[in-house]
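Dear colleague,

Following up on yesterday's call, I've attached the two folding results inline so they're easy to grep. Please treat them as preliminary; we haven't cross-checked anything against experimental data yet. The first protein's sequence and structure tokens come first.
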Amino acid sequence: MIVDDKGIKDSWKEYMEKLMNEENEWDHKILAGIKEGPADCIRIAEVTAVLKMMKRHKAPGLSGLVAKKIQATRDIGTQCMLHLCQGYFK
């Protein structure tokens, strides 16, 4: 079990490098329609629903900590996450 910060960072780096450099097969069966015009904004209800689905104490490293902290702060954490998501979306 890795408990020191450097070990955790190195573990995540190794995992992400493997994930991003691995070739995956695609069967081309997924179809999606073309949407024209401006995209819809992310809504607070969507962020709240996703945060409720995040399992605390299950995810290792940063994601487990983030889920725990955001869920603990309730409205403030949800608002911050909404603002962050909308910024990425734009």
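Below is the second protein, in the same order (sequence, then structure):
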Amino acid sequence: MKKSLVVALCAMVSVPLFPLQSIAGPIETACLRSGRDAANRAVCGCIQDVADMVLRGTDQRRAAKFFRDPNLAHSVWISQKPSDDAFWDRYKQFGEMAEAYCAAG
């Protein structure tokens, strides 16, 4: 009994007193590093939240590259590959939702 109490007390003491900062996803990270004037933690975090709702992890990592290289997005958009078309449909939905949810009002 005493051993259980000591373990529980140690666990309570080791729990941080401050809330843990969430780990940024690939879209949020790319957004924050983009250097755009409107890129801030609130906007980029909102965009990441939408990405989490709409895009798979692989889609998020792929879309994050568009922040560094917009020509890559154009290449995917004009591609004739069915997999690129399917990705683009998901990416377009993501963009529309992000604009609706995260636009500065």
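For the second protein, one point worth flagging: The chain has one domain: 21-102.

Best wishes,
A.L.
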